[in-house]
Amino acid sequence: MLVAAAVLLAFTGNVRAEDGYALWMRYAPLQPALAADYRTHLGEVVSPDQTPTQRAAREELVRGLSGLLGRAPRMNTAAIAAPAVVLGTPQSSVLIAPLRKEIEALGDEGYLLRHAHIDGHTVLLVAAPQDIGVLYGVFHLLRLLQTGASLDALEVRESPRLRLRLLNHWDNLDGYVERGYAGRSLWDWQTLPEWRDPRYTDYARANASLGINGTVLNNVNASAQSLAPDYLAKAAALADIFRPYGIRVYLSARFSAPIELGGLTTADPLDPAVQRWWRDKADEIYTRIPDFGGFLVKANSEGQPGPQDYGRSHADGANLLAAALAPHGGVVMWRAFVYAHDVPADRATQAYTEFVGLDGAFLPNVIVQVKNGPIDFQPREPFHPLFGAMPRTPLMMEVQITKEYLGFATHLVYLGPLYEEALQSDTRVRGEGATVAQLLTGIAGVANIGNDRTWSGSHFDQANWYAFGRLAWNPRHPSRDIAADWAAMTFTPSPEVVQPIVEMMMDSREAAVNYMTPLGLHHLMARGHHYGPGPWVDGGPRADWTSVYYHRADRHGIGFDRTAHGSNAVGQYSPEVAAEYEDLARAPEPLLLWFHHVPWDHRMASGRPLWDELVGRYTQGVRQVQGMQATWAGLQGRVDAQRHVQVAAFLSLQRREAQWWRDASVAYFQSVSGRPLPAGETAPPHPLAWYEALQFPSAPGDGR
Amino acid sequence: MLVAAAVLLAFTGNVRAEDGYALWMRYAPLQPALAADYRTHLGEVVSPDQTPTQRAAREELVRGLSGLLGRAPRMNTAAIAAPAVVLGTPQSSVLIAPLRKEIEALGDEGYLLRHAHIDGHTVLLVAAPQDIGVLYGVFHLLRLLQTGASLDALEVRESPRLRLRLLNHWDNLDGYVERGYAGRSLWDWQTLPEWRDPRYTDYARANASLGINGTVLNNVNASAQSLAPDYLAKAAALADIFRPYGIRVYLSARFSAPIELGGLTTADPLDPAVQRWWRDKADEIYTRIPDFGGFLVKANSEGQPGPQDYGRSHADGANLLAAALAPHGGVVMWRAFVYAHDVPADRATQAYTEFVGLDGAFLPNVIVQVKNGPIDFQPREPFHPLFGAMPRTPLMMEVQITKEYLGFATHLVYLGPLYEEALQSDTRVRGEGATVAQLLTGIAGVANIGNDRTWSGSHFDQANWYAFGRLAWNPRHPSRDIAADWAAMTFTPSPEVVQPIVEMMMDSREAAVNYMTPLGLHHLMARGHHYGPGPWVDGGPRADWTSVYYHRADRHGIGFDRTAHGSNAVGQYSPEVAAEYEDLARAPEPLLLWFHHVPWDHRMASGRPLWDELVGRYTQGVRQVQGMQATWAGLQGRVDAQRHVQVAAFLSLQRREAQWWRDASVAYFQSVSGRPLPAGETAPPHPLAWYEALQFPSAPGDGR
């Protein structure tokens, strides 16, 4: 019948449209034998349906089983008549109640999956202390089915390692997404609150499937308008839609809102009228959104207003908002991504310098949000030195899911390994084994989501949303395993498809590092929109907005000396880490030029001189993209045509741009080093001036 | 099986998604009895498949018949084995060849549908002189089936009345759509030319279904970049996709491009270097796009560069580009929407004043593009006085499909009657019966299309795209009949659904006139974004960008005196028309305040004084929206839930904003007239100052 339906529907345009909208929740029919086996365990669903979250869990399971197994399960709210899936909490299910003690040990968001015998039937329990845990457990179970896992001797106990798992949307109120490459903002402020687009619910489902439990709706370069009554009514409508899925709404707050909205003459955090304004605003927000999460703030950074405008500290500013939110249980996420107007010796040192002294000065509901690295979401950075340096302050790590510096939405770059590298970095602050992940209270990902049909601007960029969510739940989860789950759920569980896709994905980030910024180079992109190479970028308002500031290439060598003889950024790390980075012999080669200014003829691990190695890496990056193209071409016929042709088109675009990065970078660095190309390397097809002259005034995502 | 499929697919998210994407080409299954009857005539399709257009026609027919009749037809390329649909041209089909003489009389884009007897079978001929006519005929046949029309004694002969039937996209290269309310631009310049989104083909299908035969891809406020080689390669990719559907690509040209792209020091149309640059650019374009349509130009208007910057005339400027395009068969569409920097007595008179003297001065491949009315796409305007005033110059009419001044995408306003009113206006230039439509060479509609899933930002705004296309093909087609076709194709052919929807649609434009600008008032919207009422708008850079300039309300009366005693705009019309507009007694009441300044106590046709009539109209507009809400509520269960709930949400938003328009306008005009509200009229809930203080810095579509 499926076939018949497909034949018929193919012509009415309603055949399973593999346009990417369904994300990793496609619930496509499984192999008949496997489906039959699962059906013997899962013919019936016993679940409560009293609360919105209970209904969401029940409906997701029905949707998933119906699609995967080709048949809707029998539904039941209490009694068991056959092998069944039993959902519930000790409060919501008499069948689960006996397990109360064991279950409550899992914590508010945890869950367990396990077989049990009840009323003479073998059942599969999806049990949790709270409704939301049951929903998470349902998604876990569906993932097991989507990936073809065995249910025998199933014994799963899960709890999130991080309390706050948030998306940050850099969305403006006019629908423009800063650094967005997936269309317009998902939030249609013009039609809210009246129109509640079903897509908002699918957004919540996708996040809940990963355990993401919060979302900041608006850009950190915030408009005060987002705190005005009409926009709060719109945000409240979204909060109502997200609530059953365990997702709290947060807002970016503009520090000067008391002036712009309140008509005050100052936003001084120590001014009583300002303090009253924020208290009243918090009260107003919580009357509309009882579970409002709190504020995210970018202050005194890149022109944003902040407490330093009044001679106050970041702690004064953060505590102002924290005091207003505390009575309601809200938090302030205060970004450490700051740099002063007067350019310092090394921008990489600045956040640490400004914040480390404030450790202990923040109210308990303030969390300092620190980017993964000390500069700005580069293809590769060392971990941020503030991790481990503020023991008395809760910290969140901010990573970018949108690929501002990694080829936008058109380059296939799987960020799982980048996140994993940052999370597993050993700060050595308490000797061995104090990884960044262990020091975190939460994690925030700058979303790559827009109104594009694929959500993320490309099919493979969905994997970065997915990997972020999985790592937010469990930062120790290997990014390769996450890639395998994603590929199986997004395409098909067949290993002949999953395995090559995983290889492509795991190779892709290193490819981008190679064709953009190899060996620890960073910040070499074009100015403003950051589209394409710009190693020659110089001049302009700030030295630390140029490329030459960062690569420091000259006739003799290349790299930023951040050792004790240079900016001494290494001194911001723990002694053990500092000693390793300080020593040219011990510094990891992938970070070599981040920490050292190195002569062109320095001998590399490969035995080649640095200059040869650098050019070789650029060329290797292009070759890696060609390899991804070949792998993908080999999957034709095994991946649905609609997505195969789109990914192939994007890969050829990536190939063209990788070559452009390689040629422009080699042309530039050769003009500086004055050295001949290594044997076997082809010269760039155009002179350097040709690359320098390229203009892209309409490149997407530019800050406005 | 369909039911079974629906049940199954409902859970896999693949049930017929009534999200609006399919537009009026849903091809939903017909009533079984009707489908069975049609199948007896249409069991087989005999069509050639040698050219892309032939394949497009064949595939559309298969898609349509399969969906509507629930069964794919047998396909055949020549012989006839059963009652069949026979597609072809005298060149492509031996079965059609005998009709060559009769068919060629239909012209290049015409077609005929008729029964015939061939090889002992009754067949339905879809015959045309060219492949494109066959495709148009297929869409005509499918429309007959979708609306449940009888095929007995079918005899259709169709040819378009206008040669140029174009969409104008005001899309910027960064994806922003000026005055767009349907998301981002459909053109993803970043992924072109590699990625050819299937949506581009659906866009072409939708336009071909209406006979639209050209599209201007970029904003009239143009960037020179759109003429640069990389963007021409992207435009060429779109042209390749559109070509089989009879759609030619045009570009808006920035007059100063020779300076910005060519590095020249001038764009003077009489400068030989400038002339050479445009000739070379035209040659370059035609090597990439052999059937390139030509240029659309906005010059010396609202700050755009133009020939007057060099002391040359609009004719000099238009002829410069026309000379470059002429060898390739391209045209220049030169917009008459111009007004000088020094504000004149009456902006309504300005286009006429600047252009009428140029009649005869343009090269033959120049077409002057004139807006439907003398101001700017207002809810109601008289026809533009240039129509009929330039007998030696081909003219196009430009109308707006996007609703910049009619409630954006969130108000249900069917524009069919507005277009019909403009097209059927009698210019009386040759005595009776010289309608605007009869004087036109072509028509352009400013598109309301974006990447929103509904294409147009709402379900009912699709009807405006549809009505524009149908009227472009046949300007005499009654807009009510077009509404009925659209409703039947978009929702269901059942009369109990179609009839009330048509009533809503036909009432909707007058409703908007009433709650926004009744009795000939115009240009009363808020400044800049044009969102909501702003009758109080005054000051700023130009008097003719204010509301008070247009309504001229004072203690004694209201309206713009455009009679001989005033600006004498009436003098720009033919004597017969001028005499009617000039006479307060004869001027049509819907245009009264456009042409006359009228005392508040002037007795109206209703017998009420003007003040009472004005307030009554505002209130009536709100009541009309309430009526639309009631009608729509009555259709619950007869229209699919997905679209019913969205339209209902949009109508409640429209109701709220109509009330806002009414209250703000009444509050303002009462502050001017000083008169009491008529009996039975409720006072606005807020003082005037409250309405004046409202700010919407993020309203969509604002010019940037």
TrEMBL record, chains A, B:
Domain Glycosyl hydrolase family 67 C-terminal positions: 457-680
Active-site residues (renumbered): 302 (proton donor), 376 (proton acceptor), 404 (proton acceptor)
Enzyme class per UniProt: hydrolase
Keyword Hydrolase tagged: yes
A GO term, aspect molecular function: xylan alpha-1,2-glucuronosidase activity
GO biological process terms held by the UniProt record: xylan catabolic process
Domain Glycosyl hydrolase family 67 catalytic: 145-455
Signal peptide: none
E.C. code: 3.2.1.131
UniProt keywords, alphabetically: Carbohydrate metabolism, Glycosidase, Hydrolase, Polysaccharide degradation, Xylan degradation
The Alpha glucuronidase N-terminal domain, residue ranges: 23-141
Top-level division of the source organism's lineage: Bacteria
A single GO cellular-component term on record: extracellular region
Complex formation: Homodimer.
PANTHER family, alphabetized: ALPHA-GLUCURONIDASE A (PTHR39207:SF1)
Entry's family note: Belongs to the glycosyl hydrolase 67 family.
Name the record gives this protein: Xylan alpha-1,2-glucuronidase
Organism encoding this protein: Stenotrophomonas rhizophila
